[in-house]
Every structure is written in structure tokens, then in C-alpha cells.
Amino acid sequence: MKHKMMVQIATLAKDWRFRYQAMVTRFSSISTRKLPKALSTLTSNKCMVVSSDYDDFHITVKRHIIKNVLGPNAQKRHRGHRDTMIANIVKDFHAHVKNNGIQPVNFRNVFQSELFGLAMKETVGSDVQSVYVEELGRLSKHEIFGILFKDLVEVALDVDWREFFPYLKWIPNKTLERKIERLSFRRQAVMTAIIKEQSKRVTSEEVPYLNFAY
């Protein structure tokens, strides 16, 4: 009888739903925690894959992303991208020494540009240099980086004093709210434009110089 009970417990422990329910029961804040206004808007209320693991869809997508970007086979497949990134970084450093002599070099700008390019290659298939967005016009690579990453990180770090005083949330903070909504709108518009361009490339069977298929 005792052995049978232990087998049943072990079987339940293997089920992620059971483990999740046990954690939620023990730590209710896991599923009920409320994100700050900025993060709630920027993550579409926890709907972004990287910020949610509450159902089969997000768990499956996370697993595929990790496997196809960070897995052993993916690392081999993307070796060329990394080699290109390193070569570009070295070239930028040499160009700086040649043109600016002993002037200090801004490592952040160099690594930032190349790492963003690597991320774009591994996600949409090419290092997007510019994109036309209906709502915003044509944007450069630097502007795309600002909208998709830099601006979002900065606004996520903005502190809304109302989060510390829930009973005062009725007091408006229009400046911050408008800023968050504007950045969220711009991010959505840029991502939609990039996805549309990639879809056209796939439909027309155009193969970018660094495209990849899973």
C-alpha cells in the first residue's frame, strides 16, 4: 500500500500542471502578482513569451526558441553569424584607430550595433539596415534598435510612485502613461513592418544572404 502511494506521488510530481498548482497553492503570488503599469503594457499583460510560462503554448514556444537559438545544432548553424560579428567588431576598432588615433573608443556603440545585428539575423533572417513603417516612415537600424530595445528598457526602469501607494492609484500620471503607450505603439508598428517584410521575402522565395530556416 505504501509503495503504491509513493508511485502515485512520483507520477503526479512528474506532471508540470501538478507542480505548478502546488507552487501556486504554496506561493499564491506566483500567478496573482500584478506587474507595474509599464511592464504590464509592454508585455501585453504577460502575453509575451519571455514573460509568461503559465500555459502549454508559452512553455512550448520558449522551448523551441531556446532549442533553435541556443541549442547545440543552432550554435553550429549560426557560427557564421558570430564569425561575421567578430570580424565586423575588429574592423570597427581598426577603423577607429586609423581615423581617430589615440582618442577613446566607445565600446558600447560598437558591441551594441553588432549584437543587435546578430539578434536580427537569428530571428528574422537578416541584419535589417532599415525598414519602412507606415505610421513612422523609414527607420534606420539605429532607430529600430532604439524602438525595440533601448526605449523599452528605459521606460521599464521608470518608477511610478503610485505602485508604492495602491490606494492613490486613482491619481492620474498622464505623462508616464502617454510615454508608455507611445513606446508600445511604436514597438508594435516596427515589429509588424519587419514581420511583413520577412513574410514577403518568404512568399517570393527570396533567400537573404544570411537567411535560415527551422
**Count of DSSP strands:** 2
Rg calculated over all Cα atoms: 23 Å
| Straight-line distance between termini | 49 Å
Most strands sheet? 2 strands, antiparallel
Shape, per Cα inertia axes:
globular
- Helix fraction by DSSP (H/I, runs of at least 4): 55-70%
Q: What is the strand content?
A: under 5%
Notes on the protein architecture:
- The chain is mainly alpha-helical.
- It is 66% helix and 4% strand.
- β1 and β2 (137-140) form a beta hairpin.
- α7 runs antiparallel to α8 (107-124) and α9 (141-157) runs antiparallel to α10 (174-203).
- The model is unreliable at 26-32 and 208-214 (pLDDT under 50).
- Belongs to the cytochrome P450 family.
- Its main location: membrane.
- It is found in: Membrane.
- It is a single-pass membrane protein.
- GO terms for molecular function: ent-kaurene oxidase activity; heme binding; iron ion binding; oxidoreductase activity, acting on paired donors, with incorporation or reduction of molecular oxygen, NAD(P)H as one donor, and incorporation of one atom of oxygen.
